[in-house]
Amino acid sequence: MARHISQIALFAALIAALGLVPKFDLAAGVPITAQSLGVMLAGCLLGARRGALAVLLFLFLVALGLPLLAGGRGGLGVFMGPTVGFLVGFPVAAFVTGYFSTKWRGSAPVVTTVLAAILGGVVVLYVFGIVGFALVTGQTLAQATSIMWVFVPGDVVKAGLAGLITESVLRLRPGLVAQG
Amino acid sequence: MLSLNSEPRSFWHALPAGPKLLALLLATGLAMWLPNAAAAAMAFLGVMGLYALAGWAFLRQGLLALRPVLFVAALILAWHGWALSWEQGGLVVARMLALIALANLVSMTTALADLLDRVERALAWLRVAPLWRQRLALSVALVVRFTPVLILKGQQLQRAWRARSHRRPGWRLMLPFVLGALDDAETVSEALRARTGTL
């Protein structure tokens, strides 16, 4: 249990740090940065349940008022803004990513992890994100999709990264991350 | 310490967290019933008025807190104006900004400790076991403690990279970053076991 709590908390801190260390370029308007990579990794490395818990803990702290979102944003205000769908989708994305990366683990590890990350971190996440964006901004789903899809290629690249990083971590720290 | 709390203290800071959160919840529900852009604009001005009640410096902080959203808000307004109607765009944008500003007001004037306290009391009321409430509190403390540590680690990795390469640091730093976090988790879990026994 101590290890579980530590891993969940440290991963939440990792996701926060990824938003606050300027690593990647922010896209103008709706910033979705390396944090979504952190979300995918949470699922891949901690498994579905604990990965989702790490992301939920992160969101809980954002709601409590800590400036942990990309660019130092936070507080209850971000849950009223156009990115609220993505925020709600983050823990679901981590869960789906973790679930499938564990389930499909087998002969082609990197490929299956990348596919799981795409399924969770892109497909599922964007469903939530687009619906949320449409609801907050009063647009139709088609309009919202036409705005949001430009960010998809970047996130597919992140999914690829998540696969590579996961494999390396599993090789370098074999006992550390028990899947599932 | 990471915090969004505003520095110019105001009488809003003295109000307890519970009523503020309830008021926000209520306002969010009511906001869905705003009939037109004019009403939404009035709501927004009303929220700004709440800020102004605490002074000019506080109002300025509130407006600054809205800056990250302004660009998107302008885009949405332009989109609506071009595609559908300015009225609809005005309603959507004014309502969104009003709610964000109100939520920011609560976040800026309510301490983390107070909010945590509220959450713990709510969990106790829901009959959540004390052990799990403790685990939540511990997890929160761990994240707050370790986020700055990991940020520092990330910056050190970037500096080490820049000392060795012309190219901008990028994705190659993710692996050592993640490994560092996992190793820290191991150290922390050992420390927890040594100090608390059962968790």
Provide tags for this entry.
heterodimer, A: 180 residues, mainly alpha, Arp2/3 complex 21 kDa subunit ARPC3, 6 helices, B: 199 residues, 79% helix, extended
Protein described:
The complex is a heterodimer of chains A (180) and B (199). Chain A has 180 residues and is mainly α. Chain A has one domain: Arp2/3 complex 21 kDa subunit ARPC3. Helix content of chain A is 71%, strand content 0%. Chain A is built from six helices and no strands. Chain A has helices at residues 2-20, 34-64, 84-103, 109-137, 141-148, 152-172. In chain A, helix 1 packs across helix 2 and helix 4 runs antiparallel to helix 6 (152-172). The relative contact order of chain A is 0.15. The model of chain A is unreliable at 24-31 (pLDDT under 50). Chain B is extended. Chain B has helices spanning 11-14, 17-31, 37-52, 56-65, 67-83, 86-109, 112-125, 130-164, 174-196. The two termini of chain B are 26 Å apart. Chain B is mainly alpha-helical and 199 residues long. Helix content of chain B is 79%, strand content 0%. Chain B folds into two domains: 13-110, no CATH class; 127-196, no CATH class. In chain B, helix 8 packs antiparallel against helix 9. The mean pLDDT of chain B is 86. The chains are: A mainly alpha (180), B mainly alpha (199). At the A-B interface, helix 1, helix 2 and helix 6 of A face helix 5, helix 6, helix 7, helix 8 and helix 9 of B.
What are the SSEs and their pairings?
The complex is a heterodimer of chains A (180) and B (199).
Chain A: H1 2-20, H2 34-64, H3 84-103, H4 109-137, H5 141-148, H6 152-172
Chain B: H1 11-14, H2 17-31, H3 37-52, H4 56-65, H5 67-83, H6 86-109, H7 112-125, H8 130-164, H9 174-196
What's the CATH class of chain A, please? Mainly Alpha
Q: Give the low-pLDDT segments of chain B.
A: none
Sheet of most strands of chain B: none
Shape of chain B: extended
Termini separation of chain B? 26 Å
Radius of gyration of chain A: 15 Å
What is the β-strand count of chain A? Answer: 0
Tell me the β content of chain B. under 5%
Mean pLDDT of chain B: 86
Order of helices and strands of chain B: HHHHHHHHH
The coarse silhouette of chain A is globular
Ranges of chain A where pLDDT stays below 50 over 5 or more residues in a row are 24-31
